[in-house]
Amino acid sequence: MKLYDAIVVGGGPAGLTAVLYLCRSGLSVAQVEMLAPGGQILKTESIENYPGFPQGVKGWELADTFAAHLAEYPFDRYNDAVLKMEQSAHGWTLSIGKDTIEGKTVVICSGANPRPLGVPREVQLTGRGVSYCALCDGNFFRDQVVAVVGGSSILYSDVEAYADELVQQRREMGYTSDRDPMNEALEALLQQKLLYNQALIDSVDINSGEVSARIEAYLQSLIEGGIANLEAKEHMAVFNYREMLRQRYEEQFYAQTMQGQVVGKVTVVPGEVERFYNSIDKDSLPIIGEQYVYAQITKFPASLSEAKQRTKEPLLDMRERVITGKTKFSVLARMYSVDMQCCHNCKEPIPERLWRELNKIK
Ligand SMILES: Cc1cc2nc3c(=O)[nH]c(=O)nc-3n(C[C@H](O)[C@H](O)[C@H](O)COP(=O)(O)OP(=O)(O)OC[C@H]3O[C@@H](n4cnc5c(N)ncnc54)[C@H](O)[C@@H]3O)c2cc1C
């Protein structure tokens, strides 16, 4: 088994920088990247916030420049996924595909994958209108109307998932409700967001140990059928799933703690409120609708020739990269596959359709 001073996992900007510094320090280095050097930069149409490129630079061009910078440095490149990492006598052993390598130090730069919303044409338009990073792409949309996803928003899928949970809970407890679960779910989520945001404003403390314990208990119940099953079902690695749970549980804990504080200050009991309303004239009561109507309106813009051209350009770029041998077609196909990890793991034949599409758009 080959032993390195350092192993860098990931070939995005962070991983490439780590390799650069480690090589320059005279250490023996291996880099493991399951796709191609560049990481998320490769999915980016145009980057406008990187110093040295006043006109902006295409994502893949910047990635190629990063890779070229490292071309002369002596380090071993492994084009495979790190599947397992275990402590060993010298540091850590990493299972990568069929190989196992050992490093005294491991630098993990595995980056992130945004959680998709599942809205129509999201994958095709990622980096060309669909954005997961307000800081990176906000400038492209200045003064235009956009829907912001992230931060403290509530997604339709969140409401649906929560409504399902409510229905399930009631089924288990043996009762039903005549209220629309979607309305109830929206109301509960809105209340949670309000309390959560107030908790952040008030710098409320939560017990993070308790959050972790709750997450681990929940995860254990899910991984009874094996980690691989859970990862296949959720389409993400278990550590990403844990991180997603952390965000969800933390928010719930903040909201509950805040609610405790708010309720703690209440000096009127519900019976007193009821007596007060019973004592006043019914006609003077405000009418509050019990049901809320909400909907998502999706309007796709007309397909302008300009827009078509914009969509074509990245495809032509890709084609050019394949023809000139700058990037392997298999790497591109994996990168732009809807589920990169799945495609990578099962080593399916590369979809012929993509190749035909690329040839069509000459
Ligand atoms: C559509 C889009 C547009 C963006 N636009 C901009 C922009 O305009 N300006 C800007 O500053 N930033 C932008 N970003 C963000 C920027 O790309 C990221 O912040 C940056 O790439 C993070 O670098 P990183 O090295 O930490 O991780 P990543 O770029 O995520 O790289 C991680 C690498 O690790 C690899 N990896 C992960 N797990 C394993 C494993 N188990 N084994 C082997 N390899 C693994 C992945 O394949 C990946 O190549 C954008 C991101 C996206 C998705």
List its traits.
362 residues, 48% helix, alpha/beta, FAD/NAD(P)-binding domain, two-stranded antiparallel sheet, binds flavin-adenine dinucleotide, single chain, 6-stranded mixed β-sheet, 14 helices, 3 domains
Short description:
With 362 residues, the protein is an alpha/beta fold. Helix content is 48%, strand content 11%.
Description:
With 362 residues, the protein is of the alpha/beta class. It has three domains: 2-108, FAD/NAD(P)-binding domain (3-Layer(bba) Sandwich), CATH 3.50.50.60; 156-264, no CATH class; 310-362, no CATH class. Helix content is 48%, strand content 11%. It has 14 helices and eight strands. It has helices at residues 13-24, 59-70, 122-125, 134-137, 156-173, 181-201, 208-222, 227-234, 238-265, 270-279, 305-323, 329-335, 340-346, 352-360, and strands at 2-9, 29-32, 46-47, 57-58, 76-78, 82-87, 92-96, 99-108. The strands form two sheets. It has a six-stranded mixed beta sheet. The chain has a two-stranded antiparallel sheet with strand order 3-4. Helix 1 links the parallel strand 1 and strand 2. Helix 5 crosses helix 6 (181-201) and helix 6 (181-201) packs across helix 9. It is globular, with a radius of gyration of 26 Å. The protein starts with a strand and ends with a helix. Mean pLDDT is 81; it is low at 340-344. The structure holds flavin-adenine dinucleotide. The site of flavin-adenine dinucleotide has 30 residues, from helix 1 and helix 4.
